[in-house]
Design goal:
The chain has 142 residues and is mainly α. It has 2 domains: 79 residues, no CATH class; 51 residues. Helices cover 53% and strands 7% of the residues. The mean pLDDT is 92.
Length: 142
């Protein structure tokens, strides 16, 4: 999308990029900030969407890229951002499968999402898509 964004910047006007990997001359960029998850909620995958919605709530003068809006956003974001730190223990596939079996046996009907949350709350680490694959392999349902 870099070429398309560059063309958009050359057209001019109010353009705001939330996220992205680099600055693009002519476009105001708001870098992703995982520390805002504590305030905005949700997953990192959808954080930029929630950041954009929050940015719109901070439009002080009904202008997307004004100094007032940027200032309002920066003040809010710096006040609520909390760095995320995880000290979770990695697990083998076998350990994850055993956890899934044990928890499903003691909590019938528990969702895959709740199981992953329970695993992480217990100080264990497992990436979301890996957990989903192991869950499907173990339980046989999506």
């Amino acid at each position: 999308m870099e070429a398309e964004l560059g063309a958009l910047a050359r057209v001019g006007g109010e353009v705001l990029l939330v996220g992205g990997v680099a600055e693009i001359p002519g476009i105001q960029r708001v870098a992703s900030n995982a520390g805002l998850r504590s305030s905005l909620g949700g997953t990192l995958t959808s954080l930029n969407v929630r950041m954009a919605a929050s940015w719109l709530e901070h439009c002080e003068d009904n202008r997307l890229t004004s100094a007032a809006t940027s200032g309002s956003w920066q003040q809010w974001a710096s006040g609520v951002a909390e760095p995320e730190r995880y000290n979770r223990k990695p697990m083998s596939d076998e350990d994850v499968i055993e956890f899934i079996k044990r928890e499903r046996a003691s909590h019938s009907g528990i969702s895959r999402t709740r199981l992953l949350r329970a695993l992480r709350d217990d100080g264990k680490a497992c990436e979301q898509s890996r957990f989903a694959n192991l869950y499907i392999r173990t339980v046989g349902e999506r």
